[in-house]
Automatic annotation (TrEMBL):
Pathway: One-carbon metabolism; tetrahydrofolate interconversion. InterPro entries: Aminoacid_DH-like_N_sf (IPR046346), NAD(P)-bd_dom_sf (IPR036291), THF_DH/CycHdrlase (IPR000672), THF_DH/CycHdrlase_cat_dom (IPR020630), THF_DH/CycHdrlase_CS (IPR020867), THF_DH/CycHdrlase_NAD-bd_dom (IPR020631). Residues 139-282 form the Tetrahydrofolate dehydrogenase/cyclohydrolase NAD(P)-binding domain. Catalyzes the oxidation of 5,10-methylenetetrahydrofolate to 5,10-methenyltetrahydrofolate and then the hydrolysis of 5,10-methenyltetrahydrofolate to 10-formyltetrahydrofolate. This is Bifunctional protein FolD. NADP(+) binds at residues 165-167, 231. Transmembrane segments: none annotated. PANTHER family: C-1-TETRAHYDROFOLATE SYNTHASE, CYTOPLASMIC, C-1-TETRAHYDROFOLATE SYNTHASE, CYTOPLASMIC-RELATED. Residues 6-120 form the Tetrahydrofolate dehydrogenase/cyclohydrolase catalytic domain. SUPFAM superfamilies: Aminoacid dehydrogenase-like, N-terminal domain, NAD(P)-binding Rossmann-fold domains. One of its GO terms (biological process) is L-histidine biosynthetic process. Belongs to the tetrahydrofolate dehydrogenase/cyclohydrolase family.
Amino acid sequence: MSAKVIDGKAFAARVRAQVAGHVAGLKERGIVPGLAVVLVGEDPASQVYVRNKGKMTVEVGMHGIERRLPADATEPELLSVIAALNADPAVHGILVQLPLPAHLDADLVINAIDPAKDVDGFHISNVGLLGTGQKAMVPCTPLGSLMLLRDLLGDLSGLEAVVVGRSNIVGKPMAQLLLAQNCTVTLAHSRTRSLPDVCRRADILVAAVGRPRMIRGDWVKPGATVIDVGINRVEAEGRTRLVGDVDFDSVASVAGAITPVPGGVGPMTIACLLANTLTACCRIHGLAEPE
Ligand code: NDP
């Protein structure tokens, strides 16, 4: 193995420590940032995410609010919970845990969140602001991935970036962020022809596909930086393991640097959620935003 393994866990801990420092400063001025997480139904993975988010919210000194609704909650019931959180001055960030049960319209629900409190950055206003290079709430996973890239590579200008996966929550905002950093960006997806050739062009390769170990070493340009966003549960030797969208062993022997799964992008996502909540709180109170 030749690649540097990017320690997202350690980086995320530093981000959370910085957030905690700012939160302590706000508390001296009588302001406590509040993050509300809304969970509909009993999806086991979502319950784990919500529990972790709640724990880390409290660890950085923020006020954590959890709203749980049954799986058969109606759209009006969910919208009234969101309206109450929008109106609550103690709440600065609102996150609706996805996926929602199929009978609920996720776009409608997300767009009911006050854009100023939309710490996931999924509201159509924030999507538009990001796409036009204006001050937005930036989705946490791409933001965390970009922080890792900037920390490792510094200026990204002129680099060839390939993002595999075009979802609204990861692939598209990742491409926007890299474009804003002056990368030459290719956004690949399931209809892309000759995907291995496209990937081999990349100085920065971001995998956000949801297919275990799809990207292999011979798809990667020697020395490239590989960000593996994928979180896939696979059965191996009677146990469930988490693996990424990148075949770690073969890619690590070619790439210059690579994020592991777990311990790469995943921890950055929660750290960025907390950072976004702090940013939202500062903006709502008209205070200078933390760096
Ligand atoms: P989606 O399922 O919404 O999107 C997957 C994308 O991958 C689609 O654009 C799809 O293309 C593309 N794709 C699927 N198969 C192929 C293929 N064979 N070749 C090329 N492209 C393909 O997934 P998400 O964006 O929500 O998530 C992607 C991964 O990231 C998942 O593993 C998820 O668990 C993980 N994730 C991790 C997070 C973290 O905190 N680390 C946060 C969010 C997600 P098309 O549009 O053509 O169908």
